[in-house]
Specification:
Blueprint (H helix, E strand, L loop, with lengths): L8 H16 L7 H30 L12
Helix pairs in contact: 1-2
Length: 73
């Protein structure tokens, strides 16, 4: 399959964070305090993945000349 447009770099970064978060779930901490830190880090990676992908999709759907300003009559 050939896509018409390339992915925005933020979407690619989101995929990297998603892969890192998925791999981090396989690492099992040995102590309770490390387990809490591990859960926080995994949640942070998933959150970064979701945020980067959503923002990248938003940025890729906007036109390059769309500045958000209203046109002058």
């Amino acid at each position: 399959m050939k896509f018409g447009r390339r992915l925005h770099p933020l979407v690619s970064a989101g995929f990297v964070f998603l892969i890192l978060a998925s791999i981090s779930r396989w690492i099992k901490p040995h102590s309770r305090s490390v387990e809490d830190l591990h859960d926080a880090l995994t949640g942070l990676l998933y959150g970064l993945a979701i945020a980067c992908m959503l923002f990248g999709i938003y940025k890729s759907t906007r036109r390059p000349d769309d500045t958000g300003a209203t046109p002058n009559p």
